[in-house]
Amino acid sequence: MNTKELILEKTLKLILEKGAIDISISEIRNATKLTTGGIYYHFSDKTDLFEAILQKYMVDYIKIDFDEIILEGSSKNRIHDTLLYILHHFIEGVEIESINEKINYRDVIILLTAAGYAEDDVNGIVSQTGNDIRIFLTDLVEDGKRKHEIRQDFSTENIVESLVILFMGIQYEWLLFANDNTDFIFEKNFDMTWQVIEYQNQ
After folding, report:
1. Which listed site, 58, 123, 134, 198, has its alpha carbon 20 to 30 Å from 114?
2. Residue 48 CB partners (closer than 8 Å, separation 6+)
3. pLDDT tens-digit profile of 128-137?
């Protein structure tokens, strides 16, 4: 791991341990075993450092690699697995290599958003990711309609929106309450949603 990555990871760990973004350079020095000059060689100031943390641990993390989603089986399975993949992408966290420890996305987003570092960049990528999810689900729903696995009398747009709302509601509950039963809640709500949108023999 290079020095810049080490600074980012150790500083993020300090933020999570302290529960605040107000980390001093002396604390970063102690955690990294670097001099002040060694830190400022890689970052012009603390704002630059915090913005780099935001980019690495929020902006980059929010992006979804849809090519990683394994799509198999029926339309129900494919939509289910897509939503579950996206949900786990957000709740399982990212790993800090220097300490071999997973950090929780919930903790990171709450701290960095509260500190005001998350507004423009994160809102932009959240909006783009939401659009990407809708496009991906639209293709799955249209394919399900062609295969007569999803009902025809509901518009694709409304079905996709109901699936997005399902996902967002569960993610929001997890974000607010850190619910340990996220998968159970997802499965229960997905089954209820699917009963409504599955193909109906007329």
Report:
1. 134
2. none
3. 888 999 999 9
